[in-house]
Amino acid sequence: MGHGIAQVAAMADNDIVVRDIEERFLEEGVEAIESNLQGGVDRGKISESEKMATLDRIDTTTDLEEAVAEADLVIEAVPEDIDIKQSTFKEIEAALTGETVIASNTSSLSVTEITSVLDRPEQAIGLHFFNPVHIMGLVEIVVAEQTDEETIAFAEEFIEEIGKEPVTVRDSAGFASSRLGVALGVEAVRMLETGVAGPRAIDRAMELGYNHPMGPIELTDIVGLDVRLDILKYLQEELGDRFRPPQLLRQKVRAGKLGKKTGEGFYLWEDGERVGVSGDLEGGR
Question: Which CATH class for the 1-170 domain?
Fold first, then answer.
């Protein structure tokens, strides 16, 4: 998510610093940005000069203080773990020297709780981007209990400036998008579990019947089965058993079949493309 956010912000004429804990992660991120941009060039969406100008606006570092020194906005995209996000927020705030807005890219965790560790929580907010960031048009702006009006206005203006559509919601478990999306996804997995239909049949039903660009099973593979499981556990704790994770999902995660990133989830993946159905689901169409 981090490299995608950096890309769309840089394409909107912003100077960007991407920070990660190891140089190899930064290299992988820049390679992904270059690949996305080249795809845009190949499809005639952007020019070669626009591609190079975007890359020129992106710097990388492993030094947090260097990354945030002149920032108007810092967006964290660390794993969906409340402790990691809180510690990251504290590190960011300690490194800041100005009135910088800090945002979390969390897809479901409480922004109010994440920002509660800050000395200036009124300058923090949630900016929930969707994957792939350079394609998806929506950004969910999540207003914590502590967020002030100035920060909300800043966030909405920024999202519009980078060519995305902001939807502003009050902080609650799963917000609006994840809560609805996960509800659809978990029911789709339960249908697999009980033999109602195979992965492709379920996905095509939503793609053709409801005009979804991607079915809920394939989306779960792309998001990551481990990520979806963690979100469901959190929503079950906050909202009740209607979000109880299916046993099939738990088994997949235990087996290390996490979706596209591992080459197998509910589907089989090669070079980023879906090539078949996971072996334990081959009976389904």
Answer: alpha beta
